[in-house]
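Notes to self after the call with IL:
- keep both proteins in one doc
- input above output, always
- annotate only the second one for now

Protein 1:
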Amino acid sequence: MSQGIFIVIEGIDGTGKSTQVRLLAEWFAAQGREGIASREPTDGPWGKKLRDSAASGRLAPTEELEYFLKDRRQHVEELIAPALAAGKVVILDRYYFSTMAYQGARGFDPTEIRRLNEEFAPLPDLLLILDLEVSAAHQRIGARGDATNEFEQREALERCRQIFLSLKDEPFARVIPCNDSIAAVAALLQQAVRQAGLAPPISDILRLGGCAVGDELAGEEAERGGVIDRVGEDGQVAVEIRDLPVALFKSQLTGDGGAGGREQGQLDLRHARSLPPTAAAASESASLLFIRPAETP
């Protein structure tokens, strides 16, 4: 059984955590690893009280911290620990580092909050801190049509940001600038995962698709389509493309090259879309493109 992987994505409101959690889970799934995307506060009884308080008015500081601890303990016991034990990839939108930041901004000692949580909450294998200037974060919050709540007031967010950045020297932490496009930030997160040694090796990806390194896509302009000489049993195709960026695509396999077949077929990439955009499937030095054809209707 594969070892479980635990990744946490943190950052102040407006940094795009939820989107990046989803994209990273999709990236792992495309490589054959089941990813579970979750969030805190959860949708459990304690998490619901916390979420409701964001709109109705924050709880008293001590009560709020108590609810976070109870919600997280339940999350660890019911989802995080069992999923990791089963060899799955768990990707969280917020964890106890957010409690350190947001409750720390209310006057609690972040170090003490960390101690209380680490008595029962496992350390992540990788902490990805999405960093953005508070003014830009506020613009994003306004652009999505939301009004800032008490959790998102400018001065509080600045204190939260500084607490997040204070974790940058932790051996499992990486700070990711997120003032670029969603696709560019997704690529940075995937790069951080690879550098941390948490992405499946390219040999495992090829075995998953039933392909060999020698399987090639014919044609000089491969990005416009070409001939594939092998398709894996599950429809996944690995091809070698020299001097082109490595990426993941979802596309349509047409012609006689059905799943599991050895016949040649046309791979039309004119309408290809990245899964997620610009996601690299191998190390930066590799010259392999891993393609998952779209399902036929």
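Protein 2 (the one to annotate):
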Amino acid sequence: MPLSQRIRHGDQPFSNNSPDQHNRLHTVIEHHGEMGIQRPTAQERHLNILTGIIQHEASRLHHLEKTPMPIKRMNFGYLLGGLLFLLISVAIAQEEGVTSETRRLFLEPALCLMLLMGIWSHVSEKKWLMVGGVILTVSGVATATIDYFLEVPELQIVNLSILFVFSLVSTWIASRHLLISGTITLNKIIGAICIYLLIGLNWSMFYLFINLVNPDSFHGLTSTVIGVQFSELLYYSYVTITTLGYGDITAAKPIARTLAYLEAIVGQFYVAVLVAWLVGMYLSDKGNHLNNS
């Protein structure tokens, strides 16, 4: 039987204890080398190692594709999709002439439910905080519904205050989860984008409160209706946080101007530092995982 077949079948042709048998084994190996069986070069060994890594990763990815992903694992992905859909829906509703009261009746509860499922699900171990989130959601939906049918101006302020508190706390919970818990994942990077959108949303409510307390704080608003002003100031907020500055709506009074440039500073700092750090950590973790594999 050839040497290769004997070794493959578990037959040990030589003992590990005899020097003579070691010499005989070395002679056989040299004889095989003379017959054309060559040892792999360093380049071939590196290629074999790389091929093994690729096969391992392909097998791991194939396994992940067959494994169902829990909803909580990609909660920020669903939240980002919901927020983008909500913003686009507001624009389409405006184009179709849907009144601001009708938009609020449907879109505000949708926003509260998205935040509750996408962000507040992470605080399920803190029952009191989860209960508070549910209470804020129910209160926001109830006040929006009552205001739609009764048209009470004071109730609009209450509804806006509830929405502002709920959105602000949601941003805090998402930021805490992003910075404190676990390793950096793709879900957390998507969460950073969600927080960026929520910052713009919170700032638009700041602007609306200022304009209610101190009228004419902004030039370019086309209506005195709270719902219309909120949509226009939401647009102004995202234009400001991204430092586009189109100029169709401008801050006219000192407090409004101060908030505007503070939002621009926060937006640039957030993108330049936090998001870049998260992406860098994510790529570093992937590289370390590949090296360890």
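Annotation: Residues 1-18, 28-37, 64-71 have pLDDT under 50 and may be disordered. The longest helix spans residues 254-292.
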